[in-house]
Amino acid sequence: MEQFVDVQERAVSKETEFIVNEGINRGFCIAITKITNCLFLSAQAKMLYTLIKHEAGANRDVVVSYESLQMQLRWSLSTLMHHINELIDAELVMDRTESKQVDNKRLHLLPLHESKTLRHSEIIYEIVLHCEARHGDVASLMHEYEGSGLYELARRSPERHVKDIAEWFGYYLGQLT
């Protein structure tokens, strides 16, 4: 039992360090800002995560009602499922629903520091904030980046491609400071 508690405390410590000490969120301890600042999540997925996190409270496991979420968000079931899958793909939640559950979804909130999507976003923030020049249309720059082969590589393993990402953005944004 003590081993389990020790492992759990280390995981919480790593997550807290990631939230407070890295990227755009540096100095703040509100975990939800990691989500709202993520460059690779839709606004709808961010809103859904916020509701799921609120429902979960301090727990990592939560059972959410499709009907309740649909009513709160005014989404169809297919839209709701699309954005739940977006959160699953971003490694922010894990689906633990048993096949016999039809009206509810049992979700497990994963530690934020383990999400490659959040890591990737934080790396880009760090790079962009250290560029001397600025790009006028950041939305089109991000769209172009997401269409690049580098995006697909970095999405799977962001830490391995930091230098490549810096070079890609450095080309468009000017020299890194």
Summarize the structure.
The chain has 9 helices and 3 strands. With 177 residues, it is mainly alpha-helical.
Q: Could you describe the 3D structure shown?
A:
The structure is a single chain. The chain has 177 residues and is mainly α. It contains 9 helices and 3 strands; from the N terminus they run αααβααββαααα. It has helices at residues 2-21, 32-36, 43-56, 66-73, 77-89, 116-129, 138-146, 149-156, 162-173; strands at 61-65, 93-95, 104-109. The chain has a 3-stranded antiparallel sheet with strand order 1-3-2. α3 packs across α5 and α6 crosses α9 (162-173). The termini are far apart. Residues 1-12 have low confidence and may be disordered.
Strand-and-helix sequence, N→C?
HHHEHHEEHHHH
How does the major sheet shape up? 3 strands, antiparallel
Return Rg in Å: 18 Å
Strand order of the largest sheet: 1-3-2
Number of strands: 3
What would you call the structural class? Answer: mainly alpha
